[in-house]
Amino acid sequence: DAGVTQSPTHLIKTRGQQVTLRCSPKSGHDTVSWYQQALGQGPQFIFQYYEEEERQRGNFPDRFSGHQFPNYSSELNVNALLLGDSALYLCASSLSLTATNEKLFFGSGTQLSVL
Amino acid sequence: AQTVTQSQPEMSVQEAETVTLSCTYDTSESDYYLFWYKQPPSRQMILVIRQEAYKQQNATENRFSVNFQKAAKSFSLKISDSQLGDAAMYFCAYNGQNFVFGPGTRLSVLP
Q1: What mean pLDDT is reported for chain A?
Q2: Using CB atoms and an 8 Å cut-off, which of residues 44-63 of chain B contact chain A?
């Protein structure tokens, strides 16, 4: 049973460029969330996708956008990259959109460096 | 908005000893869950333990247990018989409308 997989594992971009990160959820999961984890900090919620729609969003600008495909996989897009976007981007999947007891299963993340 | 605070940026414990990591949170919601996640150098977040807010009984998972004080909004993690493999970042998390993570505590285990 494959867990949550993310690609690529590392990425280097320059300011102003655009980037796309990919995530495949754990088998059987239909909800995908994205988190940004800056160095030395806890993960910050970016947004959550369910049934191919963005259902919740954290305090992130519109430069951050996403997509969910019919097979539940998801992409995170960041436009006009800033130095401050350098971080570990974590994808998490879960079974349910709204259950507060729902465990998140995380991937190993994509380390994005913006130069 | 919900917030989660971990007041200990770093902790250390001798192998086989017991250590307690602190966490406090703030919320006005009545239905929520609390979690402790571990993040080893591999970066993958791993669930350690989960607590239902409406249950008085503290959750336990083998060597890991919590002390949940709902009125005080406190949720500490106790690790007994610490092992070298327990060394990692530990994040306290709250789930109501969405997940909110604390800033983390880096735990070192000394041989």
Answers
A1: 93
A2: 44-47, 50, 52
